[in-house]
Specification:
The structure holds two protein chains of two kinds.
Chain A lengths: L2 H14 L16 E8 L2 E2 L9 E9 L8 E10 L22 E2 L8 E8 L6 E6 L5 H9 L8 E9 L4 E10 L14 E4 L2 E2 L3 E4 L9 E5 L5 E12 L7 E6 L4 E6 L3 E6 L3 E2 L3 E3 L15 E4 L9 E8 L5 E10 L1
Parallel strand pairs in A: 2-9, 12-22
Antiparallel strand pairs in A: 1-3, 3-7, 4-6, 4-8, 8-9, 10-11, 10-14, 13-14, 14-20, 15-16, 17-19, 17-21, 18-20, 21-22
Chain B lengths: L9 E6 L6 E5 L6 E5 L8 E3 L3 E3 L15 E10 L5 E8 L6 H9 L2 E2 L2 E3 L2 E3 L1 E10 L12 E9 L10 E4 L4 E4 L5 E5 L4 E9 L2 E10 L5 E7 L23 E4 H4 L9 H4 L6 E2 L9 E2 L8 E4 L2 E2 L18 E7 L14 E6 L8 E6 L3 E9 L8 E9 L1 H12 L6 E19 L2 E19 L7 E19 L5 E17 L3 E21 L2 E20 L13 E20 L5 E14 L2 E15 L4 E12 L18 E15 L2 E25 L2 E24 L5 E16 L4 E4 L6 E10 L4 E10 L3 E2 L2 E7 L4 E6 L5 E2 L3 E13 L4 E9 L9 E4 L6 E4 L5 E9 L1
Parallel strand pairs in B: 1-3, 12-18, 22-25
Antiparallel strand pairs in B: 1-11, 2-3, 4-9, 5-8, 6-7, 6-11, 9-10, 12-15, 13-14, 13-16, 16-17, 19-24, 20-21, 22-23, 24-25, 26-27, 26-54, 27-28, 28-29, 29-30, 30-31, 31-32, 32-33, 33-34, 34-35, 35-36, 36-37, 37-38, 38-39, 39-40, 40-41, 41-42, 42-43, 42-44, 44-45, 45-50, 46-49, 47-48, 50-51, 51-54, ...
The chains are: A mainly beta, B mainly beta.
Chain lengths: ~325, ~850
């Protein structure tokens, strides 16, 4: 059966068998979550590999109200044998000696080596950790990059485990390694977060329910009552120059094609609701403004929250680059 | 009647001496009679008169007497003591021309001796010999025909041969001929009661006014005893040479509940056939993958069996005559399948008039017609059918109604159509056919969400068109030969967001032929050849990325032609070395053209059968089977052009029991080992000098074994039904954990009960119950957040270590048939899942695999439809 028919069948079946199950949506933070991991630099090349051989990993770990009681964390590191593929980042040539041997581009759980851990109620957030590129053969990796070798590059995975002794969260981040001389990727830039048409501050205090009539919507509270709440326009501010050009292997045509980064914006809040939890810049081929469709709306909670509301925005460039921002709104 | 026989001769005898005793002889069937008088001769007393023993008829020369005229010649004759005539003398001769004739005849005449005084003695008698030419009987005045007509079956208009037309008051009868015609003569004028009877039809009575000088013409439509009852066609028993071959007749294909009248879905209720998810029509034969089984329509492979993979089948049900299902261990006639084979026989009409059908239900409308060309189909028959869906008319409205406000919108416009046509001609021992069929599925989806940049659109079309010619004949030396060339196209196109356009069009040609001969009752031989070739034209187009240097780039296009094909010869011998034994060895030799080069495949097949008695038989077989991987897996970028043939080795054996003349029990065991299967790979390999994703390789292996039981009641006028049960195990070898695990299509227990009964007054009620073990499930035991892609990746437990819920579903179908004189109308209600069983088909997870719920199967689904036949 062709896949598109399978999709259609499932889609159609979903319509006729519509389940009443309502799952939580990822944009509303109801418990401890890992929302993002940033590697700095996000892509290792001859130009970006630190002299120290260290890559700094930073994680965005959140909880509603950011009231952590206990936070245990552990960083793991896994380096996968070189996998020379058609990806230009892989050098486009060379490969394992003897050619024809295969590699696997995955790390299973047992392959991660613990490189750092901590347990404290007073850890610095976001979690930040320098990871040494020293496993298993640091010399070879650094040497590989410094020597300008075109041999296939290894892949690096970093795992973060966060827990409180009962529940554990796992997240994995890939660090791209490229042996080419192409411009390496950088983490994206996020200039501002625009809220209701104005540049927002990291922490703000608003009057609950105070907004123009055209920003009011009706909602149902936890008791089933219909209430009127305010919505707020939120948009990231990014500059066109921040979105990098790069080349990508086109699996359809088998050629290296020029690309321009297309940011994806993930929105989170620990109270209220979001109209769209993920927004994306338009495909550059559609000749539409790159700012179109990136905004969302945050709707205030149906009851006045006791604590400040946190809103997070995580920006991804699709190539491993990540940046985020947080806004805290106190409703009175 | 001869001229002589037109004469009646009367002879009168007188015994010499004048004493009268008379005897009258009346004989014979030639119209001769005579009378005699006898007189005893002196001097004794006549005690017994002579009696005529042997009369001799004298021929009358032409022209002597006129019709109706008679002449008597009086003679005296002497009869001796032995009864011989010794002397003749004419005493009266009205016509001298007859004297000698009378004398000659009498000299040869014999009598019993007369007795005088109790002793044989010579006597003389007078004899009158009458010549008479009878007038021809007056011509019978044939009464005029004043009632004639035709007797047809009600609803179908099929002529009824042998129907008796009876006029009770006048005891007149007539019988209809092959075309249903009859005539009656001399019916008394006025009101006349007419009664028409035929064995399989209800009595028909009517009163007609027979006027003077006119011929009354009637057409009588006789209703079948069982409205809509099955036409049971008894055909000669075919060679039972296959280890397992399940044949479903037309009657069993169109009214099985839960199939929406779709014949190919009936297969899902047979042993060895797994249940696919939801309403999919995927063929899961003995635990194999759907693409491991091949579907042929009149021997022509079809790329798509069901519209949209799960909709109605691509061929109109009325176009199907029978479905032959080989779940495994099939003969060398078939190839390119390592699972099973479904061979659909299309309907060859044997008709003398136009016949048709129109059907309308919630999904589509279709028609079917068959027409004779010429009075008696001497120019052949023509069959046409077509169907068009109208889901595209109501589905967008339904989706819109079901979508909450502010949630964006989805527009889905799916529609499909298909067509079939066939011309058949049988003449002078040759049969010629031209068959064409095709299908097209179009799917347009566009979503408009709350975020404009996330809008999505998909336009896709998939179709195929095939035309096949067939010539078959039996040569004078006993060879039965058949040749069937085929040509077709398979166009597909997909357009995603107008950014990616993929077209895969193929031109396909093929040839299939065989020659078979029965050299003796013990040896039958068949040799055949099959070949096909395809040219796939692949075209990928992606919109160019604008850059500062080139703000309006041209689309990036990749075009590629892939040539594929195979040619095979096969041979098979049916050998009966002893009574009750049948040995069937066969061999198929196939040359495959793959992107990586040519590959020769030798595929031996073997089957044997032993009839323990007329009602019990044992059978078994084995074979080697190969097929090419799916075409898309051979693509040089998205697939692996160096994939080789997939393979299975199959063993099967079992027993058949004819429990009663109408009930049949079949038990089968099977084992199938699959190897060289193409499976997905995430490895990087050195291919043609470059490291590339392997995508697929041939490292997949697996096996399946099981037991199948089928208890089947033959189709009768009122009833059909069967009970099937399969116990099976299908496993794939998991390289990661180094052991066999249940395959995706493994279902341990599969049972189905199908029954349908035709009641009086056109009611038919049927039911189907199915129960299958849930599919294997690999449990999710956790999840890891993929920070690069902002999604959670499930962490799986032991592969296939859990099971989905058991599937249990009862379907029912009620049909009411109204039979009118010249057409029939049926309305039916087909209810799937009558108890609205949950039957979970899959597990739905929240975004981080922490909470789950079941995706229920099809809810109770009533479908109403009407069907008209003329």
């Amino acid at each position: 059966m062709q896949k598109k028919y399978l999709y259609f069948m499932v889609f159609f079946a979903s319509l006729v068998t519509a389940s009443c199950t309502q799952f939580d949506t990822p944009g509303i933070v109801k418990d401890r979550r890992i929302l993002a991991i940033q590697a700095s630099p996000p892509e290792l090349t001859k130009a970006t590999i630190p002299v120290s051989g260290m890559v700094t990993m930073t994680a965005l770990v959140v909880e509603p109200g950011m009231q952590f009681t206990t936070l245990n964390y552990a960083w793991g590191y896994c380096q996968i044998a070189p996998a020379a593929g058609p990806n230009p980042a892989g050098g486009g040539g060379g490969g394992p000696a003897g050619g024809g041997s295969t590699t696997t581009s995955r790390c299973d759980a047992t392959q991660y080596r613990l490189v750092a851990s901590g347990a404290s109620t007073a850890v610095q957030l976001p979690l930040s950790q320098a990871i040494a590129l020293n496993d298993p053969e640091p010399a070879k990796l650094v040497e590989l990059l410094n020597n300008g070798s075109t041999a296939p590059a290894p892949e690096i995975r970093v795992q973060l485990k966060v827990g409180d002794g009962v529940n554990e969260l796992f997240a994995v981040k890939k660090i791209a390694v490229s042996t080419t001389n192409l411009t390496p990727n950088h983490n994206p830039s996020l200039s501002e977060i625009d809220i209701d048409g104005a540049v927002s501050l990291p922490a703000m205090t608003w009057t609950y329910g105070s907004c123009n009539v055209d920003k009011r919507v009706t909602a149902t509270d936890g008791n089933g009552n219909t209430v009127s709440v305010c919505t707020h326009y939120i948009a990231p501010v990014v500059l066109a120059a921040d979105m990098e050009d790069y080349t990508e292997f086109n699996r359809i045509t088998g050629t290296l094609d020029p690309r321009k980064e297309r940011y994806e914006f993930s929105w989170y809040a620990d109270a209220g609701t979001l109209k769209a939890e993920t927004t994306t810049q338009p495909d550059p081929r559609l000749s539409r403004p790159y700012t179109e469709g990136v905004a969302t709306e945050w709707r205030e909670p149906t009851t006045l929250p006791a604590a400040a509301v946190n809103i997070w925005l995580v920006v991804r460039d699709g190539r491993g680059g990540v940046v985020w921002a947080q806004r805290q709104i106190t409703l009175q | 009647m001869t001229k002589k026989s037109k004469h009646v001769i009367i002879m009168v005898m007188f015994l010499a001496g004048g004493i009268c005793m008379s005897d009258v002889y009346a004989f014979d069937d030639r119209g001769i009679s005579r009378e005699a008088e006898s007189v005893p001769a002196a001097p004794g007393v006549l005690t017994k008169a002579p009696e005529l023993l042997k009369a001799v008829e004298a021929p009358i020369p032409p022209g002597i007497l006129l019709p109706g005229e008679s002449v008597e010649v009086v003679l005296q004759i002497d009869i001796d003591a032995q009864g011989k005539v010794t002397h003749v003398e004419v005493t009266s001769a009205p016509n001298p021309a007859l004297d000698e004739l009378a004398k000659s005849a009498l000299l040869l005449t014999e009598f019993t001796p007369a007795e005088v005084d109790g002793k044989p003695a010579l006597v003389r008698i007078e004899y009158r010999y009458r010549f008479e030419v009878l007038a021809p009987p007056p011509p019978e005045v044939e009464k005029p025909v004043n009632l004639k007509g035709r007797v047809l079956e009600r609803g179908t208009r099929n002529p009824l041969r042998g129907a008796v037309v009876y006029i009770p008051e006048q005891n007149l009868t007539a019988e209809t001929d092959a075309q249903g015609h009859f005539e009656l003569r001399g019916i008394t004028l006025g009101k006349t009661h007419i009664r028409i009877t035929e064995l399989k039809h209800r009595k028909y009575e009517i009163t007609e006014d027979i006027p003077d000088g006119q011929v009354v013409e009637i057409t009588a439509y006789l209703l079948k005893n069982i409205a809509g009852g099955a036409e049971i066609v008894v055909v000669g028993e075919r060679d039972k040479k296959d280890v397992v071959k399940r044949v479903l007749q037309k009657e069993e294909l169109k009214s099985v509940p839960g199939t929406l009248g779709d014949p190919l879905r009936v297969l899902q209720s047979l042993p060895g056939m797994g249940r696919p998810a939801f309403i999919s029509g995927a063929l899961i034969v003995r635990g194999s993958r759907p693409n491991d089984s091949q579907v042929l329509i009149d021997g022509v492979p079809v790329p798509l069996l069901f519209h949209f993979g799960a909709g109605p089948s691509v061929i109109t049900p009325s176009f199907i005559e029978a479905i032959n299902f080989y779940p495994g261990v099939f003969g060398p006639k078939y190839g390119h399948a390592i699972g099973g084979v479904v061979d659909v026989d299309t309907h060859v009409p044997k008709i003398t008039r136009m016949h048709g059908e129109v059907k309308i239900d919630m999904l589509d409308a279709r028609f079917y017609t068959e027409t004779p060309l010429g009075e008696n189909s001497e120019y052949g028959t023509l069959t046409l059918a077509a169907r068009r869906s109208y889901v595209d008319a109501w589905l967008p409205l339904a989706i819109k109604a079901a979508t909450p406000a502010g949630q964006g919108s989805v527009i889905a416009i799916p529609y499909y159509w298909d067509y079939q046509g066939r011309y058949s001609l049988s003449a002078a021992g040759h049969r010629f056919e031209a068959t064409t069929f095709g299908s097209n599925d179009v799917l347009k989806i566009s979503t408009t969400g709350v975020v404009p940049a996330q809008n999505f659109s998909l336009n896709s079309a998939t179709g195929f068109h095939r035309t096949r010619l067939l010539w078959t004949t039996t040569l004078s030396d006993g060879w039965n030969v058949s040749v069937a060339p085929m040509v077709g196209t398979t166009p597909t196109s997909t357009d995603v967001n107008e950014l990616l356009k993929v077209n895969v069009d193929s031109i396909d040609i093929g040839l299939r032929g065989f020659a078979r001969k029965e050299f003796s009752p013990d040896v039958k031989f068949e040799i055949g050849a099959e070949g096909f070739a395809s040219r796939y034209q692949l075209r990928f187009e992606t919109a160019g990325y604008p850059t500062a240097a080139d703000p309006n780039p041209a689309p990036a296009v990749r075009e590629q032609n892939i040539y594929g094909g195979a040619g095979a010869v096969y041979t098979e011998i049916i050998w009966v070395p002893k009574q009750a034994w049948k040995i069937i060895p066969g061999l198929r030799v196939e040359e495959y053209k793959l992107p990586g080069g040519y590959t020769t495949s030798l595929e031996p097949r073997f089957a044997a059968r032993y009839d323990i008695s007329d009602t019990i038989a044992l059978k078994g077989g084995a074979g080697l089977y190969r097929q090419t991987p799916l075409p898309q897996r051979l693509d040089r970028i998205l697939g692996n052009p160096y994939l080789s043939l997939e393979q299975s080795e199959q063993l099967g054996g079992g027993a058949e029991f004819q429990l009663t003349p109408g009930i049949f029990l079949d038990m089968q065991t099977y084992y199938s080992r699959r190897s060289n299967l193409s499976v997905a790979s995430r490895d990087i390999v050195l291919r043609d000098g470059a490291y590339v994703p392997e995508n697929f390789n041939n490292t997949g292996t697996g096996h399946a074994y099981g037991l199948e039981i089928l208890l089947k009641h033959d189709v009768t006028e009122r009833f059909y039904g069967w009970l099937s049960y399969t116990w099976s195990r299908a496993e794939d070898f998991n390289k990661t954990i180094g052991t066999y695990v249940p395959s995706t299509y493994d279902q341990t227990h599969m049972a189905a009960l199908v029954a349908s009964y035709k009641f009086a007054k056109g009611w038919e009620i049927g039911t189907r119950y199915r129960m299958t073990t849930g599919r294997p499930v690999t449990p999710v035991i956790g999840a890891t957040y993929d920070a690069d892609n902002n999604r959670y990746t499930p962490v799986y437990g032991a592969p296939g270590s859990a099971r989905g819920a058991t599937f249990s579903q009862l379907d029912a179908r009620v049909e009411r048939l109204w039979t009118y004189d010249q057409w029939k109308l049926a309305a039916y209600l087909d209810i799937q899942n009558i108890f609205n069983s949950e039957n979970p088909e899959a597990t739905l997870w929240d975004y981080r695999y922490a909470k789950s719920s079941s995706l229920r199967g099809l809810p109770i689904l009533p479908v109403l439809g009407i069907r008209g036949e003329f």
